[in-house]
Design brief:
Layout: H1 12-26, E1 32-36, H2 39-51, E2 58-62, H3 80-109
Parallel strand pairs: 1-2
Helix pairs in contact: 2-3
């Protein structure tokens, strides 16, 4: 298998979990994976891949140049829509980290 395309997930963590389930079901245990996504989502995608796998997997990140020039690395802060996209991603990272920490505390207390 050269490429796995998981199309059923609704969220990024769901995508990672479903992809890992596909790996388990097929007996596929890659040493390296390539994540291809937008520059805005890449950080969160990488964090999710580092959180789930049981076996070590090298994660290679590939983000094509932004199609929308107003959302490029040097211009995202100049318009409301691009700022919303970037701040929304950081909010998701922060929210997922808070939930993960609460789950760890909850497990420790049990």
């Amino acid at each position: 298998r050269d490429m796995i395309l998981e199309e059923l997930s609704l969220t990024l963590p769901d995508n990672v979990k479903r992809t890992l389930d596909i790996f388990d079901q097929t007996g596929f245990h890659p040493k390296k994976i390539i994540i291809i996504t937008t520059p805005h989502i890449m950080r969160r995608a990488y964090i999710e891949w580092m959180r789930f796998p049981v076996e070590p997997i090298q994660v290679v990140r590939v983000a094509p140049p932004s199609i929308d020039p107003t959302k490029s690395a040097d211009k995202w802060h100049t318009n409301d829509e691009a700022r919303h996209v970037v701040l929304n991603e950081y909010a998701k990272i922060f929210g997922e980290a808070c939930i993960s920490n609460l789950l760890v505390v909850e497990r420790s207390a049990a």
